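Intended use. Records like the one below are meant for learning the mapping from a protein sequence to its folded structure. Do not use them to infer anything beyond what is encoded.
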Amino acid sequence: MTILGWIVLGLLAGAIAKALMPGKDPGGCLITMLIGVAGALLGGWLGKVLFGVDSVDGFFNLSTWVAAIIGSLILLLGYRMLTGRR
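Structure written out for the chain above:
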């Protein structure tokens, strides 16, 4: 998958993670999208390390999307815990 594919996947995964974990985010929409891109990379890496599967087979594979969304949820939760309420 190309860099552009990872960015698009991450943006969409960040939006899905935000929908699955509603609430007020301290960073706003842009930060949530950046967390989605990083989460897509984290999810792909975790899938490979923990389960030994290649979860980055292609843009339209379900395993790629699940890994990206789970990675985005993990990073979004971590970001909320670090920033807290202001």
